[in-house]
Q: What sequence folds into this?
């Protein structure tokens, strides 16, 4: 019986050596699903980093169905093998590198930046604010309930129905003109106009003010 133990150990070790547990690879080609006519189901070609071996059409693991992000050529990925079978690889993770650096971030922050290195991102920062940014335009939903919209270009709200704004006080500050409706006339204010007959200042609204 004791003679069988070394034999069994050798057999087990030989089987374990045949198992492929994992590798780091470099994406050599991606195949995004760009139309109903293609058969691409979120796969890519991967060249093993430590061997001159290229794996074709490797499935990419997704966090859940409905989420997709095709890797770029040159990205580092982590491979696993179903049942240790080298003919059944799966991309189970993606790794940052000197070529593909992570977005700038602090501890306890969550950020998604697409494409990597660009100015479009969604984030939850260390103050628990939700931020959506694209270029120089940024929308911030703060934990205290306030909302900020920042940008260097035009802001447009266009709908087919009505627009209702309900708040406590409303302030509009413009360095240029203010236009309320096309073809309207000028607004008369108590600061710039007097009664033509008596010369007395006009009595204006105490709740709606305008400067012009």
A:
């Amino acid at each position: 019986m004791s003679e069988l133990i070394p034999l069994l150990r050798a057999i087990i070790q030989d089987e374990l050596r045949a198992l492929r547990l994992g590798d780091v690879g470099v994406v050599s080609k991606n195949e995004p699903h760009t139309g109903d006519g293609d058969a691409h189901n979120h796969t890519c070609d991967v060249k093993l980093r430590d061997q001159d071996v290229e794996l074709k059409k490797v499935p990419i693991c997704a966090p859940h169905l409905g989420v997709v992000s095709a890797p770029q050529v040159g990205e580092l990925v982590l491979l696993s093998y179903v049942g240790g079978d080298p003919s059944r690889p799966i991309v189970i993770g993606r790794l940052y590198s000197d070529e593909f650096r992570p977005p700038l971030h602090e501890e306890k922050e969550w950020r998604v930046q697409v494409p990597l290195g660009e100015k479009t991102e969604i984030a939850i920062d260390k103050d628990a604010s939700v931020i959506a940014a694209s270029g120089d335009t940024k929308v911030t939903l703060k934990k205290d309930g306030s909302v900020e919209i920042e940008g260097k270009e035009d802001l447009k709200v266009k709908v087919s129905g009505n627009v209702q704004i309900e708040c406590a006080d409303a302030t509009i500050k413009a360095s240029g003109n203010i236009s309320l409706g096309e073809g309207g006339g000028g607004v008369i204010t108590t600061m710039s106009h007097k009664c033509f007959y008596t010369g007395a200042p006009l009595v204006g609204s105490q709740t709606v003010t305008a400067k012009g």
Summary: The two ends are 104 Å apart (CA to CA). The mean pLDDT is 86. Strands lie at 22-31, 43-48, 54-59, 76-81, 89-95, 110-113, 120-124, 130-134, 137-141, 147-150. Residues 110-150 form one domain.
